[in-house]
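Chapter review: from sequence to fold.
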Amino acid sequence: MPSEFILYHNNRCSKSRAALSLLEERGIQAKVVRYLDTPPDLATLEELFRKLGLESVRDMMRVKDDLYKELALDNPELDNHALLQAIAEHPALLERPILADADRAAIGRPTENLETLLPSS
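The token string follows.
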């Protein structure tokens, strides 16, 4: 049975558009979540973090974004839960694009990272 893919997408982002194009080129249907319009809740973000297999939530955040600095999220005392809460409140902090299936996820920077989730062609 083929995997059900979800692409967390921002159409204004070239990397995100490239990820969508990659899926279309490969004939892969994905549920596209425009996460700025429909922000993921905390439970969804926790699941994404788990699927990404990261140690720090910062690795799935736009740490160079002005908002990250304005909210002082570089404070080393903030734990992963606090950082996930910040993304839930400010979805623009979420790195993009992220492709997820039932078990795993990958951040599409570079787009080639997504290949690890896709069936071989």
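Two observations follow directly from the output. The first helix runs from residue 14 to 25. The chain has a mean pLDDT of 95.
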